Structures are given as structure tokens and as C-alpha cells.
Amino acid sequence: MSITQLIEYIIDLYTFYLDELNALPRNDFILGEMTAYVETLEIIQQSLGRKHKKLDYVIEQKYKI
To answer: pLDDT tens-digit profile of 34-46?
Structure first.
């Protein structure tokens, strides 16, 4: 697996997780888990030096952490 494929996989996986968690009632555990996924996606977004085609939005606004 190349680094590009790995990044795509992580983006897809964490976005799926966040969509699932976003539909659940909020508690401290859910918010902590969401924060970790959001921060990881933001690091990926920032490290690419541009918005990634799958991350072309403000992540924290979409998932409201």
C-alpha cells in the first residue's frame, strides 16, 4: 500500500466513523472519540498544504465537536 492509498484509506475510514458517531447521543466518550478523529483529519488536511478533495470542508463545523 502506498502512502497515498494509506491516506485515502484513513480519510474514508475516519469519515465513516465520524458519520456513525455523529448520529449517536453525545456523551464524554463519544466526544473524545470524535475529537481524536477530527484532529487526525485536520492534521492530514493541513499537512497536504491544500485542501484534499475528500476534505474540502471545515471538519469541525461538519462534526460540531
So the answer is: 999 999 999 999 9
The answer to whether 18 touches 38, Cβ cutoff 8 Å, is yes
Cβ atoms of 22 and 34 closer than 8 Å: yes
Residue 16 one-letter amino acid = F
pLDDT of residue 38: 97
Torsion of CA 54, 37, 46, 52, to 10 degrees: -10
Q: Which spans in the chain are helix H?
A: 3-22, 28-47, 59-63
Global pTM reads 0.88
Per the structure block, which three cell numbers stand in for 19?
Answer: 458519520
Contacts of 48-52 with C-beta under 8 Å, sequence gap 24+, read 52/7, 52/11
- Using the predicted structure, report yes or no on whether residue 50 has a pLDDT greater than 80: no
